[in-house]
Structure formats: C-alpha cells, structure tokens
Amino acid sequence: MGFSSGTENLVYQPGYADFYLKSQYGIFPQEHRSLAGASLLNMIMVDQQRHDFSDPAVSELIVSFPVVSAPCSYAWDMGFGWSSVRSQAGDLIVVPPHTESRWRVSGARRLLVFAIPVEIVRKVLGPECPADLTSAFETISGSSRPDALTQQVMLKLWEMGRGEEPPSRIMAESVLTTLVCQVLSLSQGAAETAGSGAMPPRNMKRLIEYVDAHLHEDIGLAELAEIAGWGVRHFARVFQQTMGQTPHRWVMDRRVSRAKYLLTQREMSLAEIAFTCGFADQSHFTTCFRRSTGFTPLRWRNGGFSGA
C-alpha cells in the first residue's frame, strides 16, 4: 500500500508491533497483519489477560478497542496521573505519537490494535495535518466512549489484511484515510467541548514535573502560569476548574505529600525536611502538615503512617 510516488522508499524503524512481539505482551496469543504485506500499517489482534505493563513512546499513532471484554476494569497513566474505567467492548483507546504509557488491566479482553506511523498520518491528512500530532490527539488520549465508525473502519481494515486477496491501493488508502480523519475529528471535538474550561493534560504534566523538581523553592502563581503558557488570570481560573483547588493549595499539597515520604525514610531531621519541601521553616512545616493530615510531622513519623 502506498501513499504517493515515493512512499515505497520510506524506511520505518521497528515500532509498536515489533515491541509487542518482543516485550511482556509476547505471552498473550496474538495475530499480526499488515495491508498487502506492507509495513505501513501494522495491526494486532491480541487476547490479553490481567497485566501491568509499560509501553514506550513510538513514532506512531496507536488506536485500539476491545472487540470482546470480560467484566473488568483498566487504568492508564500517560505521564499526568492514573485514570480508570470499566472495560466494555468498543471503547476507543488512543495513545498519541511519542507518548509513553502504562496500563493496568484486571481481566481478559480481546483487543484490536493499530499502529499508524506519523509519516502516514501526515500523508493522509495532507495540508490539514496539525504540526504537533502529539497535542492534536491528546484530548482523547486514553479511553473514551465507543465510536461506531471507528470500529467499523478498523474491522474493515483488519479483514483487508487477511492476505487472501490483497486490496487495491486506492481502496486501502481510502479506508485508512477515513480512520485517521475520524480519530482526529473526535479529538478536535473533545477539545472544542473542553474549551477554556479544562487544563490540557500536556500542560498539567509540565506543571507537575516543574513543581516536583522545584519544591525546595518559592513557587509563585505567575511562574506557574508562564509554564502553562497562559496569562495569570486565565491560568488561575482554568486550574481551579480542572483541579478543584487553587494553584497555591495544590502546590502546598504536593509539598506535604513529599514530606510524608521523607518522614517514612527516617533519614532527615524535621528541619531538613521542611527546607527540602519548600516550607519557610520548621514551624511553618508543622502548621501546614497538621492542617493537611491532622497530625504533626513528629507524630506522623512516630506513628508509622508509612504509605499513607
């Protein structure tokens, strides 16, 4: 299957399908197909069982859905916290290009997985292709409700890859184009629905990484807004709507969370922990910690609240 007079010369490094065969996923029964023997679109039908696996970032758009699912739940983390849902047949599951992810699945399910190289996504979308494909598909990253058209197109492509009668290049391109355009349309629709009322996961990830790396410092609202790429007023409003608390309260909670961990390690004094976590002094540390947990730091340490 080609997408232009030069597609045949494109060379793709081993991607998600190769990873799937050689990683822990290799223990699951799975069938791999590609269209007309090409490596441009790799498809996997896999019978998964309970697992907790990590996936690497690849230069491919990963689109999948459970064809059949036992009563179970699954959770994912793409760098900005865990999300969890009950598994149901047809759930649309998307991992944007260049995105690491971790998955916890509590039961059995048959999953149809497509790995579409970013080069092909760009060729399919042409001049309308977003410059940043990671951000373009981020609003539906993880799991979302079933989409009938996406399911139908993916099942059609899967059947076309059986190899008994290779499909025509034009037909294969047309069906794949429909798939890519539909997934992008769903993502754009989700972004419009969210509007300015939700913090994009990508922005939240940047904030978490920055705050955790600078907890020992004084972190101001303007500083956080700049990292998010917004004005202070807009940032404060969107953050409150998304997180249900002010940026200041959120930063303080992360300071307390880090302090909890350090208290369980018993390697640092209370004064050292206060400094490391960015509290003004030990007295300030004690006040904030008690307000958050109901205990003083010393009581927490001596009480053995490990992992709380």
Order of helices and strands: HEEEEEEEEEHHEHHHHHHHHH
The amount of helix comes to 40-55%
Major sheet details: 6 strands, antiparallel
CATH homologous superfamily designation of the largest domain: Regulatory protein AraC
Organism: Aquibium oceanicum
Domain HTH araC/xylS-type: 205-303
Keywords: DNA-binding, Transcription, Transcription regulation
Pfam family, one: HTH_18
Question: Could you please describe the fold and organization of this structure?
Answer:
The protein is an alpha+beta fold and 308 residues long. It folds into 2 domains: 7-194, Jelly Rolls, CATH 2.60.120; 201-302, Orthogonal Bundle (Arc Repressor Mutant, subunit A), CATH 1.10.10. It contains 12 helices and 10 strands. It has helices at residues 16-22, 118-125, 133-136, 148-160, 169-194, 201-213, 221-228, 232-243, 247-265, 270-276, 282-293, 297-302; strands spanning 30-34, 42-48, 51-55, 60-69, 73-77, 82-86, 92-95, 101-105, 109-117, 142-144. The chain has a 6-stranded antiparallel beta sheet. Strands 3-8-5-6 form a 4-stranded antiparallel beta sheet, with no helix packed on it. Helix 4 runs antiparallel to helix 5, helix 7 packs across helix 8 (232-243) and helix 9 (247-265) crosses helix 11.
